[in-house]
Amino acid sequence: MSKSQHYNAFISYRHSKLDSSVAISLHRKLERFRLPGNLRKDYPKDKWKIERVFRDEDELPLADNLSDPIEEALKNSDFLIVICTPRLPESKWCAKEIETFKKLHGQDHILAVLAEGEPDDSFPDAICYKEIEKIDENGKSTVERVSIEPLAADVRSDDPRKRNKMLDDAVLRMAAPMYGLGYDDLKQRHREQRIKRIASVSALAAGVFFIFGMICMILGLKINAQKNLIAEQHVKLEKQYREEQIKYAESMAVVTDTLLKEGLRQDAVYAVRNAMPDTINDETVPYVPSTQYALSKALGKYTMYNYVPIGKEELPENDDFWNDPGKYRTLESSLADQYVIMAEERGDSKVIILTSSCRLYLYDPAENLLLDYTYTWFSDPPTEYVLGAAIKDNRLYIWFSDADYMAVYEWIGIEEYKKAGSINYEDRREKIGTRIEDGEEVVSDDGKYIMTTGPNHTLLLKNAETKENVKTLYDMRGGYTALKELSGIGGYMLVSDGKYSYQLDQDLNIIAEVPYFYDYDADNKAFFQYYYVSDAQDYDLYSVKTVSYDSLIKEADELLSDYHPSEEVLDRYGMMREK
Description:
- The chain has helices at residues 17-31, 68-75, 92-105, 119-122, 160-178, 183-219, 223-261, 265-273, 289-298, 374-377, 425-432, 549-559, 567-573, and strands spanning 7-12, 53-55, 77-84, 110-114, 129-135, 141-147, 152-154, 306-314, 340-345, 351-355, 360-364, 369-372, 386-392, 395-400, 405-412, 418-424, 441-443, 449-454, 458-463, 469-473, 480-485, 492-496, 500-504, 510-515, 517-521, 526-532, 538-545.
- It has 579 residues and is an alpha+beta fold.
- The protein folds into four domains: 7-181, Rossmann fold, CATH 3.40.50.10350; 197-289, no CATH class; 306-412, no CATH class; 418-546, Thrombin, subunit H, CATH 2.40.10.
- Helix 7 packs parallel to helix 9 and helix 8 (265-273) packs across helix 12 (549-559).
- The longest helix has 39 residues, at 223-261.
- It starts with 6 loop residues before the first strand and ends in a 6-residue tail after the last helix.
């Protein structure tokens, strides 16, 4: 850090989850602050914005003194902002930062943000008093400690979105003393600026309508005709805007799939969530079924025994990180132009094999059986060439040939599901049914629709009474057997005799992928899913509650509460920066 580096503010905080989250958000918002235009004439141009804020991102070392960079930053900072929680008074390092700053700049330049707890528990003593020198009639000097009320912004909330909103107000409270302004004055100036913008737009619109009215009078057009024309244009523009919203949402559903394959799970959730309404009936943001389908996949809903992409990490410096398949390279003679990249022995005497073509196999040395499990173990199988792989702490790390990072996958198993009995092979076949062949028809169990196959891997869903086609589903390559009504939650289940069945909404749009679907429990609003457990063709059944739109949105928002995608990802995929 350069000794001449100047900071508008120094943020002091404990390195715990909530404290760090508030500090990071406040840091970003402060550096995005801009002085309202109606105040800028009173300040030089280089003071129109808060240029730089210091926030130490690491815990301080176990030493008696603050590090040199910290002391230098305190010396070169105009203000100290203290993030106050019940954990702050326990930190001697935060106390040292406050005392050091007081000695350098005085009490009046210390600001506080109350993030959790009550003031008595969260405010450190150092910001609750100041020392005043008094001289008595004999000329003797004494120092008296006087209690003061810290200048603080209150951002306490259990709701991350509400807390983020409160931080916007906290920025104004922090910025006001930095510019020598009162909080109410700065807030009023912000409001006046918004009003002026609205007034400017309104004046422009008024001028346009006045000219338009004059032209209408000159041409002798009827007022009612003009009103109708304006109304039609408004409807047209609204329609065009809504169509653009839908196109963007559909594109983000595709982007989500791409980001998942790159291992960028949080980016994938961010992309599609920002194109979705908070509620399914929101009138301002259109609901697009493909986004619900994409979000369901990104969050790993209904997934059983899969490696799900969760992120990416830097490549290890040491080659010993990667798995050495050793003796299992001899299996390459059975793999047809594939190389064994990883061989991981499991506790059940079986071995997980990963090949250069990113195919997962389960190998049983006792039986010398090599079973292809690729489409069972990957929720969305990558296809790139693999250079290295390893399994550590239940996570699978893969280095693809065209990547300068390693993709990270997390194991999601049936441990999260409720056991619901077992079935044999014949019972499963009888329950699921036989796939429809070309020209055959199946009637939904509520009698409303007829399902039949179409050309080029399509499924046609027809009105059972009129025989008119009401929905065409594309790229449906599985063997589909039935259309089952989901009473209580609405919609249908498109049942497959293969891996993937699909949940449809009431308009017959696909909204979720349900692997190994067996049956629907209307009383408990749950799906039964089966899992193959032995060579005797027995299956275990597991029950999993159906996931509503609202619960998907809530889970996504919790995942993204403290997450901000990189500018590179936002630009590359054309993603919105704010919802």
